[in-house]
Design brief:
The chain is an all-alpha fold. The protein contains five helices and no strands. The two termini are 19 Å apart.
């Protein structure tokens, strides 16, 4: 699914790399957050509270512009 998504992007290589890293980071966060591997079924259960938890986690580790892009 990630590779299919990347094919739809029309930005430069740096932007695609940044977006890819954001998605991977989100999946890694969810893996830790839910305590299980992330599947499409798990993604379907993500709530706005889960996304807020991810953004709060990012805020402690990344620059605000990076977090804004990721969101």
């Amino acid at each position: 699914a990630l590779n299919d998504w990347k094919l739809t992007l029309t930005h430069n290589d740096h932007t695609i790399k940044a977006y890819t890293n954001d998605v991977i980071g989100f999946i890694q966060f969810l893996t830790h957050h839910f305590g299980q591997s992330v599947t499409l079924l798990v993604l379907a259960t993500v709530t706005h509270q889960d996304i807020r938890s991810w953004l709060a986690d990012r805020r402690t580790r990344y620059h605000m512009r990076s977090t804004q892009r990721a969101f």
